[in-house]
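Exercise 7. Given the encoded structure of a 271-residue chain, write a plausible sequence.
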């Protein structure tokens, strides 16, 4: 299943090469502007540095969320439209801003907590210090990995609001821990590659597309479980049976829709 995800995500990203670059201009431009704004604030009024960082994270999150609408279109084999980016802003600004505030605040609090316990360990050699440092570090990592599903959940399932997306993000993570880690590592690799070209490709849009593609395919598992549970009541509670997901069968339609990767489409993605 993960191998097919890699193939589909590569195909979708490459076929939308120029679109992703164009869409990435907005988060890149805002990130540059935010960087200089934070530098100015830190020089003029250092006490406002962290509040400003949280607010800017909220605005940046709105931009990232706006990329999610086209990511869902592409993941569903539909054509991306640049106008959707602007249309999405008026629909997602509330949840996007809230998520950015929540994410930035949580990361800052965890950072301060980890720094505090590291200093405790260094100054006193306390086992408590290193223990809580490890606990908070692992907790932070789990949160970051789990929350990669937040934006895809919002766009792939219409009924989800902030609290449902938050809850389901952790449900998906704990139920698919190995897959979540693999996708996270893959996204880290994409991000590193993006830095080579100043995050223009695959960039933020590519990362959102990657998580959306991964979750879209993974959700077939839950459709299958629901179907099997109707045939065999209590099926969803049997861990052994739940783990035997027939991915070849579930991905058959997607494989036929995607088709083989052709050399011509790789060299000339705009055709």
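Solution.
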């Amino acid at each position: 299943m993960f191998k097919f995800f890699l193939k589909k995500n590569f195909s979708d990203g490459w076929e939308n090469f120029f679109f992703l670059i164009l869409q990435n201009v907005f988060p890149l431009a805002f990130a540059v502007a935010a960087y200089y704004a934070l530098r100015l604030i830190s020089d003029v009024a250092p006490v406002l540095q962290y509040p400003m960082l949280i607010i800017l994270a909220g605005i940046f999150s709105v931009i990232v969320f706006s990329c999610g609408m086209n990511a869902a279109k592409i993941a569903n084999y539909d054509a991306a439209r640049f106008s959707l980016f602007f249309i999405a802003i008026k629909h997602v600004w509330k949840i996007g801003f809230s998520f950015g505030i929540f994410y930035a605040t949580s990361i800052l609090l965890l950072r301060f907590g980890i720094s505090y316990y590291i200093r405790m360990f260094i100054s006193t050699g306390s086992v408590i210090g290193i223990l809580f440092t490890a606990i908070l570090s692992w907790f932070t990592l789990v949160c970051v990995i789990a929350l990669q599903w937040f934006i895809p959940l919002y766009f792939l399932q219409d009924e989800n609001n902030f609290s449902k997306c938050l809850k389901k993000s952790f449900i998906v993570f704990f139920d698919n821990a190995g897959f979540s880690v693999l996708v996270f590592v893959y996204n880290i690799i994409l991000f590193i590659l993006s830095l080579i070209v100043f995050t223009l490709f695959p960039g933020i849009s590519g990362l959102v597309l990657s998580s959306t593609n991964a979750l879209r395919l993974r959700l077939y598992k839950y459709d299958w479980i629901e179907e099997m549970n109707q045939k065999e009541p209590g099926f969803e509670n049997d861990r052994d049976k739940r783990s035997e997901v027939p991915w070849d069968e579930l991905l058959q339609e997607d494989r036929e829709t995607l088709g083989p990767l052709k050399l011509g489409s790789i060299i000339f993605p705009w055709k």
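Remark. The chain has a mean pLDDT of 93. Students should compare their own answers with the one above.
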